[in-house]
Protein: 4-hydroxyacetophenone monooxygenase
Amino acid sequence: MVEEHTVTNDAARGANVYDVLIMGAGFAGLHGLHRLREDGFRVLALEAAPDTGGAWYWNSYPGARCDVESLVYCYSFSPVIDAEWRWSERYAARDEICQYLQWVATRLDLRKDIRFNSRIAKAHFDKNDQLWHLRTENGEEFLGRHFIASSGPISTPIMPNIPGLSDFRGQMIHTARWPTPGPDFAGKRVGVIGTGSSGTQLIPLVAEQCGQMHVFMRTRNYYMPARNRPLTDEDYEWWYKNRDDVRAKLNRSEISGGGDIMLDEDIAKHPNSTNGIDLRREERFEILEKRWEHGGAMIGYAFRDVIWNPEVNEDVSEFFRKKVHTFVGDAGLAEKLEPGKFPFGTKRPTVGTDFFETFLRPNVSLVDVKASPIERMTEKGVVVAGKEYEIDILILASGFDAVTGALTSIDIRGESGRSLKETWVDGTATFLGISLVDFPNFYMIGGPGSPSVLTNVVRTNEFQVDWIADLLCQMRENGHRIAKVKPEAQQAWADKVEKAATHGFWGKTDSWYVGANVPGKKRQILAFTGGLPAYRKACNVERDSGFSQYGFSHLAELADASVLLS
Ligand code: N01
Structure:
């Protein structure tokens, strides 16, 4: 029997009560809104930006483009979307991704249930009325029985830890807060700090426009050529025939977050099915070479054991180190760009176009800030090894407080009144990366302890959205109002996450994967590294058991039920 779950307009408090409140209207938020609304729940999504787009909305820097192929960096849940949308390029530019999400919001009539320009400042679970109380920065309040955080794992930018940063008198821009319109670079002296995915995409394009560019490079990362190109009718013909198979493979895939699209069959069969160690060395290099020609994020993930077998990882790492020479020839420059001596894959590799070649331009200088870190900023520029590099514009491609930052930067408090930030001060423990002890009826998409950023995030988000919706439907059918994950279930999953991380090189390198880029953040692998199939299996077992690792309460069992709204 379906419980009455319509919204109650609580005029006394001047607030609306929803079945479900969703934080964020990016990929996961839009899907969550659609699915739960189809299930008959009253849902509202609160989005900080003026339109949908999620993290992509804010990352409008030149060259911003997804490095996962567009055919698999999109929804699979809707036949309407599948049939009506067509991507123009192998890798979608930021604008096209935003257009896609904005079109989806309109096509599925989601806009009426999204409140834009509404950044959530706090979210408290009130044990008296058993509701989530949300307040936005503009002072609006909303009440919800369930609260889903889909704020994105890579959405809270961080500034580099450099003395005197605020002394700089020129223009300073973080890639994830790019202004509209962007700056005019013509004739300007530009400094770039950061050569991760964002810096790698931006540097070639800004170098073409500006007068002089200094790139302050700390870690030399593994880089792969994207080989972007327009998608043709033939590509789409292939896609319609193979779409279901590709999606099923992504769900079975342990490391193939980007998908293997339109690869020759002999090389496509390798990831996830072949351990590199079972091949001869020459065969490994042959496969890598073929993948290099094909381009894209999956080159280095050719073998399922790349992240835990030292011999295989060293071959892959060496392959990329040698490849630098094919771009820049000159031995001196190639040495300055060669990836550092850390295992491939332990820091997210970058994918781009003309990145290495850009350092051959006469207006671009490479400043190695590994050996001599940036000393300080001055009014005029950046000081390294006693030399001041004068610049007009400083671009910070310095990254994000990943996975947890978007959650801990908001005042989210559970049943005991303890904040999420306090709860995670010594590390994150969650149940399936979705639920948390002391935070009833609270669910995270892409939370710590889920495979999130190590997989195709859109696909994993879809899976989590459906799982959470199934949980809410079951609760409704059983007349349950509150779901609390059992402490022993959370501990068991946290142990699994930790154990999985020991099987691999993850902890060996400083990267945002382990929170090393945020001062004071506990060093810990933030994602479940056991692979998507193992994760899906654990979630499916839990769903099939009737969500046995949760304790549920009926309305009547709740303390002081008289104050509850129904
Ligand atoms: O950030 P990053 P990002 N002095 O953390 C450097 C996703 N993404 O914005 O490596 C000097 O990777 C830092 O140096 P080091 C993707 O998942 C996806 O580029 O710490 N340098 C590094 O070079 C990606 O991984 C797309 O030594 C300093 C850089 O700043 C994630 O977002 C596009 C410094 C930060 O690199 C983050 O990427 C863009 C200092 N004091 C982003 N402080 C797609 O295409 C920091 N750095 C899907």
Observations:
- Residues 1-12, 559-566 have pLDDT under 50 and may be disordered.
